[in-house]
Write the structure tokens for this entry.
Amino acid sequence: NAGVMQNPRHLVRRRGQEARLRCSPMKGHSHVYWYRQLPEEGLKFMVYLQKENIIDESGMPKERFSAEFPKEGPSILRIQQVVRGDSAAYFCASSPGRGNSGNTIYFGEGSWLTVV
Amino acid sequence: RKEVEQDPGPFNVPEGATVAFNCTYSNSASQSFFWYRQDCRKEPKLLMSVYSSGNEDGRFTAQLNRASQYISLLIRDSKLSDSATYLCVVNWDNTNAGKSTFGDGTTLTVKP
């Protein structure tokens, strides 16, 4: 599958635990984005990363959330001490970043986090 | 005012109908425009890019009006499978696709 790969697809965590969501971009894509979609709401941009760099984290909550995209391996969105309000679908997306379709974003199937 | 605004709907139409959605954006420097489709509990999928001259893909036609800062999506001969939420996406930074702003979506239900 050459698409954006996310795992786990579904994750259940108790309040106070940590959630780690992983994302491998589409082959050939060097730009990764994380979005959150709360129930019955639209997509909200969280963070934009390139390898080993956070380019824009203006949509990230100030506390408990962090993201990385290491030189090797997938991008990770980490949520510490989860609360019920963190329950949402977290979508990862990637783009080539250059060329005619450089701005076109392709999404993974999402990770559904439920905090109980 | 939201950066990208869409009529949330829902639009309920019979099969075979023609339906149009509009989306307005506030940043006049916006450069790239897209329509995505999102099915319930699924990821958004690119439906089509929107070009200045307008473009068509089968039953779908997208238009851009820079002067009035809106884009539109027209669906002809609606099918049951067109039922979904349609997301308008606007980007004003060609170096950063992550600067794309998503509208909250317009829900379409096509009924037999």
About this structure: The interface with chain B takes residues 31, 33, 35, 41-45, 47-48, 55-56, 89, 91, 95, 97, 102-110, 112 of chain A (CB under 8 Å).
